[in-house]
Amino acid sequence: MTITFRTETFRDDFTFRNSPAGIRRFPFPFHEDGYMYSVNIEPHRPGAPGSVFEHGFDVDEHYVAEMADRALVLAEDPLRCQALPHMDLASWDYLELVMTTKARDYPELFTLETDGDRWHWTNRPLGIDDRFTFGVTSTLPCPPLEYIGRQTQGDHCLLDQRDNNLWMDAGMVTTQADWSLDFDIGMNFFEWHAPVPLAHEMGVFQRAIKFLTSIPQGQPSRRLNWTLTVNPRLDTSPENYPKWGPDKLTVTPDTIGEKMHLRVELQTFWRLPRSNALVFPIRCYLLRFDDLVTIPKWARRMHRVIRDLPPELVTYKGMSRYHPMLVEWLAAHDDGAPTSPGIFPD
Amino acid sequence: MSSTARALAVTVADVIEVTPLVKRFEFVSTDGAPLPPFSGGAHVVVELPDGDHLRRNPYSLMSSPRDLSRYAISVRRDDGGRGGSRYLHEQVVPGMAMTISAPVNLFALDLRARKHLMIAGGIGITPFIAQIHQLSGGGAPFELHYKARSAPLAAYMDDLAARHPGAVHACCSDRGEDLDLDTLLTTQPLGTHLYVCGPERLIAGVTARAAALGWPARHVHVEHFAAPPPGLPFAVRLAASNLSITVRGEQSLLEAIEEAGVDAPYLCRGGACGQCETAVVACDGTLHHHDHWLTDAQRETGDRIMPCVSRFTGRLLTLDR
């Protein structure tokens, strides 16, 4: 398998595009013509070849450009990557998980050679060739979470497990849907989920914490989450709200297809065996509406989901300003035909 | 949504008599690959196929988390138990193929601790040995107090004391030694975490004193070694599977469910983790709860049971399984 890495931007001139194959492999998040919260967690088992579920850590055509965007965010705001002192072992745990998984799944892109604690890592797409001692931070160019986070698409939260709870005690977060690591660091599972409407009353988080704290090593799980983003911007952070908030004012019936993007997070959950922490990678995929409606099943379903969304979720997902306009635009792409079950195109 | 750790194929590399009552079993992976990494305090569930009866018993790993070439457990022979330890002591020899689970940790170190204060009773020493290995690579200091009936019965005491002078303190009742718990618990630096593993009486005593002396509950960690107690046979209806089974006296309810071919989740098999919690549909008799998971209110309601350790007497127990 060869991946042609795109040269593109996620800011300013927004040259991000999905290739035709990239559109078809997009993880469309709705398995039926409606949406409500659920603990929609399933085993993160290898999925269909070519799909985003094929490997534990998906590498796609946006890899190199996303890592360049991350470097820009970190240069402006180093606090996007933080690890409390007790999370050092978990950081190494995660580095090991990513390196062993990627070297196994993408041998033409990544190579890991180990001789006891002496490791040799080659990342060909990013031109990295480093030798270091596993567990010894001074042998890496930067701390282990930052090192591997700069080479892995998606955000990465390391959750310490204590007191039957999970604690956001380390992370690398630059492609987030309007939440802040610097604000959430040190919070527990219920605290950082406090702003989510409806789900607390439904008992979703109580059931989720019981499941998550029991995840065994080698048996990761996954779920999809979604929102909408104006322009293909990865860094929609509270810190930078003045830069992207006004984009919402640019949405008109004429610009929806070009500017509006379905933003899907492939969230996975893995036990880190050396530290007993959990890692929660949140991988962001973007799909512009003009591309989305080229898949007839997705066009019909997207209209029905957005049209019937509970008002609390319209507000929480930040689309109050243009919700009626969206429904009208999507209605033109829904011929009323029935849709097949499941998320994949027909 | 429930979890069960995956299975590992291992070969018994060595069986070593540590004391007259304790044997150490060392496992290597059958395919020669390194075993999965783990953290100090983790346990594995060992499958013990004793004739027709498949037991699955949890044992703490005591080997170093940095040595993945082999795992070690130590097992105290319990002739009054259901037979798992007797099977290991009498039947398991080097070269045997066995199945164990991947490690699961329900007794992890709190790595924020400024100091780790450990209190072990008897064979409850095993998780601490792995944790001490983990801490030896750098990290906060530890102090271990190890209670045993006598020095000859205190597995690994001499070795631990020799390798960690000043940090390991033996307390043997036959020498008239006793732990001065109140002094110990009132002279620790701020940020100390307390860990207790051993007999129920020790755990209850230490946690009660710690609470009375003002220790925050979040700084006190315990590992219950709750083995499923034997009892009288009883009849169970598995409503969801449409099966009727009988739980034998030396068998746990969970083992009987598994023997019937019904998939049931578990992680600890010691009544601590909550994974096997099962709804009671009807109960014509009395539930005997032996777990550390259900609250008193839940026990009073009687609408659920932890089949890994709990039992029943009466005419028929009907479960949603």
From TrEMBL, chain A:
Highest taxon in the source lineage: Bacteria
InterPro entries, alphabetically?
Answer: HODM_asu-like
Protein known as: DUF3445 domain-containing protein
TrEMBL record, chain B:
- The Enzyme Commission number assigned here is 1.-.-.-
The UniProt record lists the 2Fe-2S ferredoxin-type domain at 234-321
FAD-binding FR-type domain mapped to chain residues: 5-110
For this protein, the record's PROSITE patterns field holds: 2FE2S_FER_1 (PS00197), 2FE2S_FER_2 (PS51085), FAD_FR (PS51384)
Cofactor(s) listed: FMN
Domain of life, per UniProt, equals: Bacteria
Q: Output this protein's name.
A: Phthalate dioxygenase reductase
